[in-house]
Amino acid sequence: MPPLNLKGALEALLFSSDEPLPLTLLAESLDAPIDEVAAALHTLERDYKEREAGIELREIAGGDALSRR
């Protein structure tokens, strides 16, 4: 069963990893459909840009990772 707050759960996984995490691994880890995970990642990316956060979500080496701006 996917977490109630998919965006928050994704953010926690991304913050806790020092390596880019592939979409398939994120979806499997959260027991969530890939399309929902992809949409949540897109929302996170947009949220960071809109509020001019000190971090950004980037696709690197076939996975997603958080990095400093």
Question: Would you kindly provide a brief summary of this structure?
Answer:
The protein has 3 helices and 2 strands, in the order H-H-H-E-E.
Account of the 3D structure:
This protein is of the alpha+beta class. It contains three helices and two strands. It has helices at 6-16, 23-30, 34-50, and strands spanning 55-60, 63-68. It has a two-stranded antiparallel ribbon. A hairpin with a 2-residue loop joins strand 1 and strand 2. Helix 1 crosses helix 3 (34-50) and helix 2 crosses helix 3 (34-50). The longest helix has 17 residues, at 34-50. The radius of gyration is 11 Å and the shape is globular.
Q: Topology of this protein?
A:
Elements: H1 6-16, H2 23-30, H3 34-50, E1 55-60, E2 63-68
Antiparallel strand pairs: 1-2
Helix pairs in contact: 1-3, 2-3
What is the radius of gyration computed over CA atoms, rounded to a whole number of angstroms?
Answer: 11 Å
Tell me about the largest β-sheet: 2 strands, antiparallel
Main-sheet strand order equals: 1-2
Kindly estimate the percentage of residues that lie in beta strands according to DSSP. 15-25%
State the helicity in percent bands. 40-55%
Indicate the multimeric state: single chain
What would the principal axes of the Cα set say about the shape?
A: globular
Distance between the termini: 33 Å
The helix tally amounts to: 3
Low-pLDDT segments, ≥5 res: none
Tally of DSSP β-strands? 2
Order of helices and strands: HHHEE
Any descriptors?
69 residues, two-stranded antiparallel sheet, 3 helices, 17% strand
